[in-house]
Amino acid sequence: MRLSPGRVFAHVRTGLAVALIAIFGSSAARAEWQRYASGVVGTLTEGSWHEAVRPPEVQFADSHLIGGAIGWDRPIGASRFRYGAEAQLVRHFGRPSHFEVSVPVVLRYMSDASSPVTSFAAGLGLSYTTRVPQVEIDRNGNSQRLFVHWMAEIEFALQDTKQTAFVRLHHRSDGYGLFEVDAGSTGFVFGLRHRF
């Protein structure tokens, strides 16, 4: 099933409205949500995401990104899992420049407090760019502005307990045929996060 941009945006608007009601619907619910802000820098690769996790096969593209994100998450019961959402805005530069907005829903597993690894996270949502990314056209022959976005992240503790560092795979693609154009890109991202 192919999704038109109009239908996707209609679903996104509905989803955001439901999320905002859930987040801000009551003072008790608001008290459980934790906010954070992140700054990120990264570079894109020439290969697919599974090549990006095999170091001998990684080839870096002449395309980089810098930006930030805000997010909210809350615990799932008494478990080590948290769920939430993140809004990302990054500036790509190199081949040529453009902005990208990504909005993933994020599931996070919190590690033991004594571990230097604070959490593992995965997110899935949508990515929209202000122009069709040239790095994706060069690699795939074609691309488009609206795609699926997913990220995978490992977060590390710093001395300040409210601040952490993280490394992340930042990926956008057609979602195995969800969108008509078969293309995509993957970036390695380093970030710093502050929780409020």
Structural overview:
The protein is of the alpha+beta class and 196 residues long. The protein has a single domain, classed as Porin (Beta Barrel), CATH 2.40.160. It has helices at 5-24, 27-32, 49-52, 134-140; strands at residues 34-45, 60-75, 81-93, 98-110, 117-129, 146-157, 163-173, 184-195. Strands 1-2-3-4-5-6-7-8 form an eight-stranded antiparallel barrel. A hairpin with a 4-residue loop joins β3 and β4 (98-110).
Question: How does the helix and strand content classify structurally?
Answer: alpha+beta
The total of beta strands comes to 8
Order of helices and strands: HHEHEEEEHEEE
- Beta-strand share of residues: over 45%
Count of helical stretches = 4
Total tally of structural domains: 1
Largest sheet data: 8 strands, antiparallel, barrel
Q: Report the CATH C-level class.
A: Mainly Beta
End-to-end distance: 41 Å
Q: Calculate Rg over CA atoms.
A: 17 Å
**Spans where pLDDT lies below 50 across 5 or more residues:** none
For the biggest β-sheet, the strand order reads 1-2-3-4-5-6-7-8
What's the rounded overall pLDDT mean? Answer: 86
Helix content percent band: 10-25%
Shape summary: globular
What is the CATH architecture annotation? Answer: Beta Barrel
CATH topology: Porin
Short description, anyone?
The chain has 196 residues and is an alpha+beta fold. 19% of the residues lie in helices and 52% in strands. An eight-stranded antiparallel beta barrel has the order 1-2-3-4-5-6-7-8.
Architecture blueprint of SSEs:
Layout: H1 5-24, H2 27-32, E1 34-45, H3 49-52, E2 60-75, E3 81-93, E4 98-110, E5 117-129, H4 134-140, E6 146-157, E7 163-173, E8 184-195
